[in-house]
Amino acid sequence: MSVEVRIEPGRIARLLRARGSIAHRRISQRTERVARIAEQEAPGSMGRYVSWKVQEGPRGLEGVIVCDHPAVRFVLDGTRPHIIRPRRARALRFEVDGRVVFAAYARHPGTRPNNFLARALRLGR
Questions:
Q1: What is the pLDDT of residues 43-53, one digit of tens each?
Q2: Model confidence pLDDT, tens digit, residues 79-105
Q3: Is the pLDDT of residue 5 over 60?
Q4: Which of 39, 40, 112, 115 would bridge with 47, disulfide CB 3.0–4.6 Å?
């Protein structure tokens, strides 16, 4: 005696879509939470450049957080001490104690790395 059970293909597709939407919603919520933390942890106006999305990856759905500020690499990795020279003019112009000062170059002391994206990921768990 044998028993055969058939499940309609449309029903299977509906079940998979329902499960997928739950997973998508959960991943979206978690990714959005981490992105909000990254916006708060980012220095200056860099938080305005943080965005997020959920996409299909090699192992299923994955949340992606992106910061497309032009200087984000310098903030994440830090910089070594370096000399700043004028590009379009003959001298650099800046204010010191309310006075305008001109200089042929300036010595920048460098910056420490500030990996606000990794910190946001740790705080968002």
A1: 999 999 999 98
A2: 999 999 999 999 999 999 999 999 999
A3: no
A4: 39
Is 80 inside any structural domain? yes
Alpha-carbon gap, residue 106 to 97, rounded angstroms: 17
Q: Which domain holds residue 58?
A: 9-123
- Please state the domain count of the chain: 1
Q: How far is CA 99 from the centre of its chain?
A: 38
Q: Which of 36, 39, 28 is nearest to 63 (CA)?
A: 28
pLDDT, average across residues 4-10: 53
4 falls within a domain: no
Reduce the DSSP state of residue 94 to 3 states and report it.
Answer: strand
- The structure tokens listed for 70 are 């032009």
Query: Residue 25 corresponds to which tokens in the numbers above?
Result: 């919603």
* Cβ-based neighbour number of residue 75 at 10 Å: 21
Please compute the mean of the pLDDT values over residues 63-68 and round it to a whole number: 90
CA 75 – CA 43 distance, rounded (Å) = 8
